[in-house]
Sequence to fold (78 residues):
Amino acid sequence: MNQIFANEGNSRAVLGHESPWTRFVRGGLSAAVDSLLTWQRRHKDRMHLMALDDRLLHDIGISLADVEHEVSKPFWKP
Fold:
């Protein structure tokens, strides 16, 4: 058995193995932040879309009904 232990106070951790807390911070917390940033971006994009005038909407091929439908969605729905 070739395991290397590091003493940190009264606790012992196997080097090279992540603790559950580290996995949570890297995985769960990161995913939560990504979701929040996605929701924020989606809200901003919808507000910018709502601010476009009829000429610009026509140029990009979107109707006013499409804009109203998109803007009426909650920020968490794609």
Remarks:
- The chain is about 60% helix and 10% strand.
- The first strand starts at residue 5 and ends at 8.
- Residues 8 and 14 are 11 Å apart (CA to CA).
- The beta strands are 5-8, 11-14.
